[in-house]
Amino acid sequence: MKLGVPLGLLHPAVWRDVAVAADELGYESLWMPEHLVFATDLSLAVYPGGDAPAISPATPLFDAPAFLCWLAGLTSRVKLGTAVHLFALRHPFVSARAFATLDAVSGGRAVCGVGAGWYEGEWVAAGLDFATRGPRLDEALQVARRLWTEPAVAHEGRFYRFPEVAFEPKPVQPHLPILAGGESAAALRRAATLCDGWISMPHTLDTIRSPLDRLAALRDDRPFSVTVHAYDLSGPGEIDRWAALGVDRLIVRPWRNSREAVPRLTAFARAVL
In this structure, what CATH number is given to the domain that contains residue 6? Predict the structure, then answer.
């Protein structure tokens, strides 16, 4: 089982120390969330199924691939991923370039976790139609994959059109992994048909079974990875039960607050790694 560490819900002041500790302790990956912008109008900030705004406009936001590039220079082996990057909020040139750069400066450690997004406010602010975010993401990923692998690319699609362009350098990894987040029917289809894996919302052993069953019904025989946020992991003894369900990577959070993140990561590593 691969074990990842999330930077979200930690104070940004400790991200550097947590990243260095995760690298030194043997954790497999680091994961950074993102939003592009928060609108001060909170009417569009209620998470589906919730009853109150899920964001605060005063929350500091960072460019995730750029921040991970900095962490790449402070680490040597841990993979650097996004959970998740709103790929289609930018032109695919921009997102494809960001992850190709991250892969280059990290020596092939980038993992591109993507999602269509739930927060309508930033789409409105960016002047993009929130209702088209799913098909826009699908097309953007197809464009990016071509930019990363083909010597020259021209494209005529529903959302993006451009004449033949060159895109260099290519990522270090011959096949930079793309993981799709989300648990809607469209998100699971995206993961199964366009991506190299799926990355979940926080789950327990009981709640993960339904999305895994739905995902299994959509998958073909291509290599595929399953990553789950398991914030309520009870201890090392639970890991084998996750593996038995077909989970390849757990993103764990063994701390209760930012001050204890590094000590708790260290204790968890001694018990598990």
Answer: 3.20.20.30
Note the pLDDT tens digit of each residue in 138-162: 999 999 999 999 999 999 999 999 9
What residues make up the domain containing 201? 2-272
The 3-class secondary structure across the chain, one letter per residue, is CEEEEECCCCCHHHHHHHHHHHHHHCCCEEEECCCCCCCCCHHHCECCCCCCECCCCCCCCCCHHHHHHHHHCCCCCCEEEECCECHHHCCHHHHHHHHHHHHHHHCCCEEEEECCCCCHHHHHHCCCCHHHHHHHHHHHHHHHHHHHHCCCEEEECCCCEEEEECCCCCCCCCCCCEEEECCCHHHHHHHHHHCCEEEEEECCCCCCHHHHHHHHCCCCCCCCEEEEECCCCCCHHHHHHHHHCCCCEEECCCCCCHHHHHHHHHHHHHHHC
pTM, full prediction: 0.97
